[in-house]
Structures are given as C-alpha cells and as structure tokens.
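Protein modeling request. Please complete all fields; requests missing the sequence field cannot be processed.
Requester role: graduate student
Desired output: 3D structure, token encoding
Chains: 1
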Amino acid sequence: MPASSERNAKKTPQQPATVSAARNYQDILYEVKDQVAWVTINRPRVLNAFREQTLDEMISALKSTREDPSIVCAVVTGAGDKSFSAGGDFFAMKRLNFTNATMWNDRMLGLAMTIRGLPIPVIAMVNGWCMGGGHELALWCDLVIASENAVLGQTGAKVGACPTVGATQYLPRLIGERLAREMIFCARRFAAKEAVEVGLINKCVPQKDLLNETLKWCETMKGHSALTLRMTKKSLNFESDNLYSSWQHGMELLAHVWGSEEAKEGMNAFLAGRAPNFQKFRLRAKKDLEQYVDGCARDLNAPPDMRRKKAKS
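Delivered output (313 residues):
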C-alpha cells in the first residue's frame, strides 16, 4: 500500500458492518445491525414453539457473535406480535422418551449455556405468549423487556412436562421461593405489568414502543465498556453458575418424564383442545398401592411355603 494511502486509511477507521452476511437458517432469522445481533424465532404458525432444529440454529447464531467483537449485545425475540415463544413444539416433544431424551435435553442445556456464556448481554424482547420452555428461554437471558400484551408462565404441570431447565433453578432467586412454587405447581401466569412488580422481568412497555425501548437499551450499552460488561456478566453469573449440578439433575429427571403416560396425556390433550385426565393415573396408582399393602398382609412377600395359612372358620 502506498504511504499516502496508508495515511488516509489511518484517518478513516473502519465502521462496523450494519447487517451481517446471510446465514442458511430455516427456523430462525439472524442479522447483525448497528452492532446488535438479532435472533428471531421464525415459526409464528406454532406461536414460535421450538424444535430440535430451532435450538441448533439459535445456538449457532448466538455463538457466531463471538466472531465479531464489535457486537455490543444480542436480542432474542419471536416473529410476529402474538408470541415470543410458546416453548417446545409438542410434535417434537411427543417423540421423546428415556432413550432419546438427551437429544432434546442437551440442546436445551446447550442453548442456555451459550446465552449465559456469551461475553455480551443478551436481551429477551417479549411480545405476547412467553410460556413453558419459552419462558425458560427468557430466564436464561440477562435482561427481559416485554410489551403490555405479554403473558409469562410455566405450564409444565398442565401438560405433563417438567421446567427443570432453568425455571426450578432461577425462579426462586428472582421472585422468591413461595411465588416460584405457585408459578410451577399451579401454572400461574403473570401479565407483563405484574411480572415487573414481582421481579420476573425488567420492564413493561406499550406494544408499539417495544422495539424502540429495546433499542434504547442497546444504544445505552454501546456507550459502555465492553470489558466491564463482559467481566460483570461473568461475576453476576457466579452464584447461579454453581447450580450447574442442579441442571444436570434436572436433565435426568426430565428424561424420565419424556415418553411417560402422563406426558403423552398432557400433550395429546392440549393438541386436541381438551382438558387432560391426570386423575386416572392417581387412581390407578392408589389401586396398585392398595394391592401391594394387601399382599403384604397376606404374606405374598414371602415364599409360598412360608406364608401363613388362613385360619379355618
């Protein structure tokens, strides 16, 4: 390069790219614009419920932010205005069982660890439904901003699934033990305004202002030290990072749930638009226990030649 050209190059610093190169994703949209990485679940037909491919693509997109140090933060959202994410796609989860559970669980854990491990803040921009695994996705993020039409909740108890991929770990620390148990056991939902009041999310804004208010956060962080953001995120994560053993424990618990009769009943009922019948499993369990207790009383837990003979009347 000629000396004059070299001097001119020094006078004109290179500006960050406004939009990233196109990536071959099927379930999500990804772009980097004005130093912000945008990851959008693009499955509005199913309320942005995710399947295995969706999780893979989100992991790939978010990890790619490490290749561009000019990226200030990432925003995760859902396409359309009806849903951030309704959680796992039941047509994906119905196929799960104890044998293949790790294929799903590892992806969920992988996305959570990707978000928490990034050296930049990750914002959940929530519009509409934010339920089940979709709510856990929001829990993994550093900041959550929601529109007034947003509804956040844990529906696992209603559909035979377990929110052990972040909800059981983080909710007690965010909203307190009692409210966390109510949210999980009773499938309690929170409208966005109430979610702010209890500490579940950071901010609630009118739906028309959601994008602009999110951009304000991004612009604010552009003026802050990247090194400080990276170091403080790592420090803020310290206590909850120690819960990693609980995540592993939760993955194994969830593996036993996938493919169970109750999980199948819950998901099939939801898809059919009917109330699930979990009572039949309780009543069957009661009958099984009664038969067990009766067998003990009749010495069925001993070899036949050692059992007490019935007294003659």
